[in-house]
Amino acid sequence: MSHNKLRCIILDDEIPSLKFLKILLDQVENVEIVKVFNDPLAVVREYKELEFDFCILDIEMPQLTGFDLAEILQDYPIIFATAYKQYASEAFNINAVDYITKPISLQRLKQAVDKVRIQVSKSVVSEQPYAQFNTDKGKALIHFDRVLFIRNSDVDSRDKVFFFDDDTDVMVKNISFGGLLAILPASGFIRINKREIISLRIVKFFNSEEIVTTLKDQLDKPLVLGLSETYRKTFMELITAGG
Fold first, then answer.
1. Residue 16 in this model has a pLDDT that exceeds 80
2. Which of 90, 105, 143, 231 lies at a CB distance of 3.0 to 4.6 Å from 130, suitable for a disulfide?
3. Strand order in the sheet with 6-11
């Protein structure tokens, strides 16, 4: 399921900067601005209700910085746009797609959007059957056909626990669900709630609220996982596309 237009939200607490960014983005082909924000707290309140592919964030703002927001929006590709060069290394540490310094040029903005487009298209078409990850036991090569589901770590939500078909599991360090979905085969894996991505092959029954899986819980009963409203539509589309 791909749409040609990339949908984005933009945030800058300074209105002139925001207006200028909007004017520039309107000149970038195949980009649709879903919503413009000048208050980071409004983004936190509203982003779950919006359908968008990436965000452009200012960094220095009162109440919440762009980095604080990036933690909350960690499943979306992020471009930082700021007047300050000194944040660049920090931006890339948190997996920003790009970092643009103001005053922004149209050419530079187009480059950044192209990077987002590559990342988003990777999540639609992933060729590799495996990938290398940093785990709590060192580097590991994980074959996707062995992965049943992936869950946020209870200790640190930046870490993810992979559960395999031989009843083993491994902790993958410091990766977002967005980063994972960009690597995992798009036809086989889907996010179902804030905490979990599943392989479609474990789906036995489902309704609009929950998924009964082929796996067993600690009491040897079928493992039931929640399907949240945010991810329901995509889940249903993928299931029906698969037959």
1. yes
2. 143
3. 31-37, 6-11, 54-57, 78-82, 98-101
